[in-house]
Write a structure and sequence with these properties.
Chain B: Keywords: Oxidoreductase, Thiamine pyrophosphate. The structure holds 2 protein chains of 2 kinds. Chain A has 15 helices and 7 strands. By secondary structure, chain A is of the alpha/beta class. In chain A, helix 3 (92-117) packs across helix 4 (131-139). Chain A is globular and about 80 Å long. The N and C termini of chain A lie far apart (77 Å). By secondary structure, chain B is an alpha/beta fold. Chain B has 2 domains: 11-201, 3-Layer(aba) Sandwich (Rossmann fold); 216-340, 3-Layer(aba) Sandwich (Rossmann fold). Helices cover 37% and strands 18% of the residues of chain B. Chain B contains 14 helices and 14 strands. Chain B has helices at 3-6, 14-28, 52-56, 68-80, 99-106, 109-112, 142-146, 159-171, 193-202, 232-244, 263-273, 288-300, 324-327, 331-340; strands spanning 12-13, 32-36, 61-63, 84-88, 122-127, 152-154, 176-181, 188-189, 216-219, 224-228, 250-254, 257-259, 276-283, 309-313. The longest helix of chain B is centred in the N-terminal third of the chain and has 15 residues, at 14-28. Classes of the chains: A alpha/beta, B alpha/beta. The A-B interface holds A 122-123, 170, 172-176, 191-193, 223-224, 226-229, 254-257, 261-263, 323-324, 328-329, 386, 388, 390-392, 395, 400, 402-403, 406, 410, 413, 421-422 and B 37-38, 40-43, 45, 63, 65-70, 93-94, 96-97, 132, 134-136, 285, 314-317, 319-323, 326-327, 332-333, 335-336. The complex binds thiamine diphosphate and magnesium ion. Magnesium ion is lined by residues 221-223, 251, 253-254 of chain A.
Chain lengths: 423, 345
């Protein structure tokens, strides 16, 4: 694969490709059993690449990877790409921006990990080791696009541009969500697993009905793919032909449960074809590959108004949260092996080899990351005291009579407490 | 808590009482199986199933794919085919994906089939707040289940009950939703598990959960009855102690089982004291506390010297950790409510 500075090719029909005969399914449909419109879009797309719909929808033979574990660019023939699965390497400025995101992301994870250990955060699900996915998710989107993150995706949310202080509100335990989702087109980080994928599909569906150019990135983990909502979301997205990119960060575990106990599918990306959409698997610790695949998925979703599924294989280097003890279910040897594939180091080596990263740039980038870390610490020291009476404020657009009463009760208690406590 | 337990030399945690109840049931009956998310290798996020896979093997205690509807739905099939599933929901609010299976099938199967298909399933749910948990980790969701005919709803408040009531739930021919107050998991009491085992297995324990006579007076008093269950019982007891200093003698009733409901015990205590305050963590509107209050009014109206009052959570979504103290019923709020009762005729 050569590097390109133009956007990846769209699968619009290319002249001369009509002669590729590509039946959908094994036989002609029975009356009343015609395939959905979706099928014809997949058919068109696959024709344009000169491959069958199955070849288009199934993931490539191997996961897409551009960098070896050391960070050297690997030969084009070994990147896993092929017809219909082409992933041009992003432009230099994008690569550099991604590196900046990685450095900041690592700093955010480590700062918050420290804060939670000091007992200054209620909880922090760290994405240490998954930063390439985190950064790729944010950089793959345009400003008009929406992101639906989980509890693990702090770094994505900050990279997308949400004020770190606002993001920390929930982890500090002040309120459930500290930013206005509409301001950033980033939904409130979701904890009930997989439920947000359906919301993502709904946003995309509404955008389609309203004639907006909006792609929605729906994020979840490997374990979350087992929930029923995963099935419903992918199916709705495919049936309604809406531009959603389902981005699964497969970090190998759902708390203690390994992927092998979660799914018997050849890969999570293979699930796509069952819904009539394209799936791809990418090395989630390879920043270049993550960017390339995500950007193309977003592009295809936008151009064709179709959903896609992207599975990034990565690894959670730290425990599930501070409340978890990962030594109970995995050996440190396994963790050590993944250290070798650290996304940050790989990207640094790649960019240095490419001549894009000198000492001055490196210094500028770490200074910026330091700034974010400082603002996170600051967020903890300023610790605004929440107003208990806000508890009654956002339950309904207009508080009910009962809530007014309960608010008065609490206000009275608070006044009496200030005046010297319960008699 | 009672005088007999206080003399025991061994202390036992709430968590290990639950754990031992399951392992004893598994030991006695090969059809008992335990499954859910992270219950195998990890032993559950609260370690309540710790060691069960190691001891009984992966066929008896196992991790499932991450899908609560799948867990509850396959428990139905397992029970149809002769097993006694004990399933774990990781947290209160994460049971919600399983509600269709619970409400439409687990609760109704016996009725639909005229008793031909009974589902002896136990659904264990860590519930309630007070542990600094973030959103979706602190719900008191008992009313949804109690409102659904066909489900029994148990909630222990003591270490002894953690053991005895879970054994009872596993032996029940009806499905039981077993609510474990998560703030009590780490609490310890002077209890000896081998004595509790002997008590349960003797079949003659006075603490068995049956069709009636399930509630227990955990503190005697004469002026007012504080009626409570699960995580709120200890708060009610503290309030009773505090109010004794003001010369008010409060009796505390621990319901233990919400369904079946012990009307007789409720009636006896309220008729004795003539006043009642109901305490529960859950939001008060259309709640178990509402039901208790209504039943008192229906049965004890002529014995009452004061309106029945409730101390519950506010009618709001469970707050973020830093604000939860303002939401949960605490001793002060119970004392305020006791003050509000009518004390003179
Ligand atoms: C519906 C639901 N069930 C259970 C949980 C508890 N829980 C939180 S995270 C988690 C594991 C999720 O694993 P995965 O989807 O792989 O994401 P990861 O945490 O690895 O990023 C579980 C079981 C939940 N949040 N929501
Ligand atoms: Mg995972």
């Amino acid at each position: 694969m050569t590097e390109s500075t133009t956007p990846p090719p769209s699968p619009e029909i290319q002249a001369g490709s009509e002669d590729v005969t590509v039946p959908m399914g094994a036989s002609t449909p029975e009356p009343g059993h015609q395939k959905a419109e979706q099928a014809s879009r997949i058919l068109e797309a696959s024709r344009s690449f000169g491959i069958t719909p199955e070849q288009y929808m199934l993931p490539a033979q191997q996961q897409i990877r551009m960098l070896d574990p050391e960070g050297n660019l690997i030969s084009e023939s070994e990147q896993g790409t092929g017809p219909g699965h082409e992933y041009p390497i992003p432009e230099d400025d994008v690569l550099l921006k991604a590196y900046e995101g990685l450095v900041a992301g690592r700093r955010i994870n480590d700062q918050n990990y420290a804060l939670v250990r000091q007992g200054r955060l209620a909880v922090y699900p760290s994405s240490h080791g998954q930063e390439a996915c985190q950064v790729g998710a944010a950089l793959g989107l345009g400003t008009q696009d929406w992101m639906f993150p989980t509890y693990r995706d702090t770094v994505s949310v900050i990279t997308r541009g949400v004020d770190p202080l606002e993001v920390m509100v929930s982890f500090r335990g002040d309120w459930h969500c500290g930013y206005n989702p509409h301001d950033y087109k980033v939904s409130a980080m979701s904890t009930p697993l997989t439920t947000q994928l359906l919301h993502a599909v709904g946003v995309a569906h509404a955008a389609k009905l309203r004639g907006e150019d909006t792609v929605v990135l729906a994020m979840c983990g490997d374990g979350a793919t087992s929930e029923g909502d995963f099935h419903e979301a992918l199916n709705f997205a495919a049936v309604f032909e809406v531009p959603v990119v389902f981005f699964v960060q497969n970090n190998g575990y759902a708390i203690s449960v390994p992927l092998s106990s979660q799914s018997a599918a050849p890969s999570l990306a293979h699930k796509a074809i069952g819904y009539g959409m394209a799936g791809e698997q990418v090395d989630g610790n390879d920043m270049v590959a993550v960017l390339a695949t995500l950007r193309r998925a977003v592009h295809l979703a936008r151009e064709n108004s179709t959903p896609l599924l992207l599975e990034a294989t990565t690894y959670r280097m730290q425990a599930h949260t501070n409340a978890d003890d990962d030594t109970r279910y995995r050996d440190s040897e396994e963790v050590e092996q993944w250290k070798r594939k650290d996304p940050l180091k790989r990207m640094r080596t790649f960019l240095t080899n490419k001549g894009l990263l000198d000492e001055a740039t490196e210094e500028r980038i770490s200074a910026k990351a330091e700034e974010i870390a400082a603002s996170l610490r600051q967020a903890m020291t300023t610790e605004p005291k929440g107003d208990p009476l806000e508890l009654f404020e956002h339950v309904y657009a207009e508080p009910t009579a009962q809530l007014h009463e309960q608010r008065d009760q609490l206000a009275d208690e608070l006044t009496r407490a200030e005046e010297g406590g319960h008699a | 808590m009672s005088a007999t337990t206080a003399t025991k030399s061994t202390t036992t945690s709430f968590a290990s009482a639950l754990n031992t109840a399951m392992s004893d049931a598994m030991e006695n009956d090969p059809s008992v199986v335990v499954f859910g998310e992270d219950v195998g290798t990890l032993g559950g996020v609260f370690r309540i199933t710790d060691g069960l896979t190691k001891r009984f093997g992966e066929n008896r205690c196992f991790d499932t794919p991450l899908a609560e509807s799948g867990i509850a739905g396959t428990a139905v099939g397992m029970a149809i085919n002769g097993m006694r599933p004990v399933i774990e929901m990781q947290f209160d609010a994460f049971a919600y994906p399983s509600l269709e299976q619970i409400f439409s099938h687990i609760a109704k199967m016996a009725n639909r089939t005229r008793g031909n298909v009974r589902l002896p399933i136990v659904i264990r749910i860590p519930y309630g707040g007070g542990v600094g948990g973030v959103e979706h980790h602190c719900d008191s969701s008992e009313a949804y289940y109690a409102h659904t005919p066909g489900l029994k709803v148990f909630t222990p408040a003591t270490v002894a009950d953690a053991y005895l009531m879970l054994r009872e739930a596993i032996d029940s021919e009806d499905p039981v939703v077993f609510f474990e107050p998560k703030k009590l998991y780490w609490s310890k009491e002077a209890e000896d598990l081998s004595e509790l085992r002997a008590e349960y297995e003797s079949g003659t324990s006075s603490r068995r959960i049956g069709a009636e006579a399930n509630a227990q007076i955990v503190r005697e008093g004469t002026d007012v009855s504080i009626i409570s269950y699960g995580p709120s019982v200890s708060t009610a007891l503290k309030a009773a102690e505090a109010t004794a200093e003001d010369g008010i003698s409060a009796e505390v009733l621990d319901l233990r089982s919400i369904v079946p409901f012990d009307d007789a015990a409720l009636q006896a205590t309220v008729e004795k004291t003539g006043r009642a305050v109901v305490v529960a963590e859950a939001q008060g509107f259309a709640s178990v506390a509402s039901e208790i209050t209504a039943r008192i009014q229906e049965r004890c109206f002529h014995s009452l010297s004061s309106p029945v009052l409730r101390v519950t959570g506010f009618d709001i979504p469970y707050p973020a950790p830093k604000l939860e103290e303002h939401h949960l019923p605490d001793v002060d709020r119970i004392l305020d409510t006791l003050d509000e009762l009518q004390w003179e005729d």
